[in-house]
Amino acid sequence: MSELKPIFEFNKKSNIKQWHIVNDDVMGGLSMALMQLNIQGHGVFSGHVSLDNNGGFCLVRHDVERIPVNAFSAFVIRIKGDGKKYAFRCKSGEHQRHTYSYDFKSSKEWQTIEIPFNEMEAVFRGEELKLPNYHGDYLAQIAIIIKNGVEEDFTLEIESIKIR
């Protein structure tokens, strides 16, 4: 299937409160992040990753009402970043503890990144699990995380997240 189905498209009227920040403070870290809309109506995930107190990540997530995605095979994200590495993540169930993750490097120019479902690896708290890759049956959550093991500021502009 080559037709794109929107999961979330940012615009000036987007409800940014549908996106939730999870910083490493859940385990004592000091990283800080924000999710905002810019004047163009794009989502902007930005902040500072701190390694203090065993920290080291910032994540933004969006829960969706669980939908079947077995007619699709990839996520298509439209972003503009800062040249840093991020990971796109998803969950297939709202009570699932692990996520499926795919690393990508952002560019300072707009780019469209296609993420095949079958290349998303199962992870839990940053550790790879010995589970099959994302099978693409259901979708309940999407997220983006920065966790490069260095203290850094970051900014990632997001236009849309779709499935193909």
What's the topology here?
Layout: E1 5-9, E2 19-23, E3 32-37, E4 43-49, E5 58-68, E6 74-80, E7 85-91, E8 99-105, E9 111-116, E10 121-124, E11 127-128, E12 138-146, E13 152-163
Antiparallel strand pairs: 1-13, 2-5, 3-4, 4-13, 5-12, 6-9, 6-13, 7-8, 7-12, 8-10, 10-11
Q: What would you note in describing this structure?
A:
- This protein has 164 residues and is mainly β.
- The chain has one domain: Jelly Rolls (Sandwich), CATH 2.60.120.
- The protein contains no helices and 13 strands.
- The strands form two sheets. The protein has a seven-stranded antiparallel beta sheet with strand order 2-5-12-7-8-10-11, with no helix packed on it. Strands 1, 3, 4, 6, 9 and 13 form a six-stranded antiparallel beta sheet that branches.
- Strand 7 and strand 8 form a beta hairpin.
- The model has no long low-confidence stretch (mean pLDDT 96).
